């Protein structure tokens, strides 16, 4: 059944609808590729968010570094990670956040062959 792939508990699906919902936020994250934009962001994160027209919920998630909310509001993990890198966070840190583990637990789980869900 085609819809079964969208019914994986705890797994966000990044599809066209999600992409449209998170477009402005992901555009902000992608802008952080450039050093001058990272510097501007760090000077006034709220004003920088406003430049991209984020929804109030997206703005709050970005400023609070609520990683799960960013994903839920349409963020692509590949783009969200650009913000995490600015905070000195690793992909393993985000993996831990999204799986309910610490970064160290997540790294250990991956070294042991990955998670098992059942």
Features of this protein?
118 residues; mainly alpha; globular
Description:
The chain is an all-alpha fold and 118 residues long. Helices cover 63% and strands 0% of the residues. Helix 8 (91-99) packs across helix 9 (103-111). The longest helix is centred in the C-terminal third of the chain and has 10 residues, at 77-86. 19% of the residues are buried.
User: How would you state the average pLDDT, rounded?
Assistant: 88
Low-pLDDT segments, ≥5 res: none
Q: What separation lies between the terminal Cα atoms? A: 22 Å
**Element-by-element helix/strand order:** HHHHHHHHH
The gyration radius over C-alpha positions equals 16 Å
The largest sheet, given as strand count, sense and whether it forms a barrel, is: none
The percent range for helix content is 55-70%
Q: How many strand segments?
A: 0
Please work out how many helical segments DSSP would assign. Answer: 9
Helix-strand makeup class:
mainly alpha
Strand content: under 5%
Sum up the overall morphology in one term.
globular
């Amino acid at each position: 059944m085609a819809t079964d792939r969208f019914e994986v508990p705890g797994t966000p699906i990044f599809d066209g609808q999600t992409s449209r919902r998170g477009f402005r936020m992901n555009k902000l994250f992608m802008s952080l590729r450039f050093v001058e934009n990272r510097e501007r962001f760090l000077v006034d994160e709220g004003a920088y968010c406003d430049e991209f027209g984020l929804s109030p919920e997206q703005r709050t998630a970005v400023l609070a570094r609520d990683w799960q909310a960013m994903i839920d509001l349409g963020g692509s993990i590949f783009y969200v990670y650009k913000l995490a890198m600015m905070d000195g966070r690793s992909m393993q840190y985000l993996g831990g956040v999204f799986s309910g583990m610490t970064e160290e637990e997540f790294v250990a789980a991956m070294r042991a062959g990955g998670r098992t869900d059942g």
